[in-house]
Amino acid sequence: MPVTKEEVIEFIANMSVLELSEFIKELEEKFGVTAAAPVAAVAAVGGAASLVGMKQAWDPLPSVLAAGFTTIDLVKAELKPGEPKTFKWRGKPIFVLRKTADMESSNRDIVANGERYTLVIGLCTHLGCIPAWKKTMWKCACHGGEFNANGQQTFGPPPKPFVVPPFKVEGTVLTLGETGPESKAMIDARA
Ligand code: FES
Fold it and tell me: How far is the CA of 146 from the centre of ligand 1 (A)?
């Protein structure tokens, strides 16, 4: 049964770059560049090398896949002061709190759009439960740990503050998984 162009494209799209290179090499060795049906598609786009190049351009870079970026638009998220929302990054809960005017400042504050935000991974630093926001603080139901609006531990067994994920601020957009200058400054301050 003849192979259609769409089937060839789908087949190629599901291969890694390495698999594709091997596949093309094998076809060239066995049939020559224009002999096999799948190779017709290769020839149509200008040969094996250009197809590999296209495949590389279609696929996200390995670093992008590994980092698992998440973006949060702080305006579109419609965060009300004092009422955090939970997002997800790399399967972890991420708490974002737009601070009220009377919440104390911290060197962990992220300033964007004229507002101050707390951004943390929402896992208790004791044994990893997910604390819940209770009016002015996060409380962990597992063993009673508490964290203030800055994400600092204030009571119970948690040994350290919530972890701040790597982030980058561009206008009102936070990108999690990238280390921007503000994120680097926080990391350096902890070092
Ligand atoms: S896991 Fe949160 S206090 Fe123990």
Answer: 9
Among the four given CATH numbers 1.20.5, 2.60.120, 1.10.287, 1.25.40, the one describing domain 5-58:
1.20.5
* pTM (two decimals): 0.66
Which one of 120, 134, 143, 163 would you pick to mutate in the ligand 1 pocket, going by the greatest count of ligand atoms within 8 A of its CB?
143
Cβ contact 176:69 at 8 Å: yes
Q: Which fold has domain 65-190?
A: Rieske Iron-sulfur Protein (2.102.10)
Query: Which residue type does 159 have?
Result: P
Instruction: Name the nearest CA neighbour of 97 among 115, 113, 114.
Output: 115
Q: Where are the domains of the chain?
A: 5-58, 65-190
Tokens (6 digits) for 168: 């980058």
pLDDT tens for each residue of the chain, 191 residues long: 555 665 565 565 555 555 555 666 666 666 665 544 544 544 454 554 555 555 555 454 554 444 578 999 999 999 999 999 999 999 999 999 999 999 999 999 999 889 999 999 999 999 999 999 999 999 999 999 999 999 999 999 999 999 999 999 999 999 999 899 888 888 777 75
Best residue among 120, 124, 137, 138 to mutate for probing ligand 1, ranked by most atoms within 8 Å of CB: 124
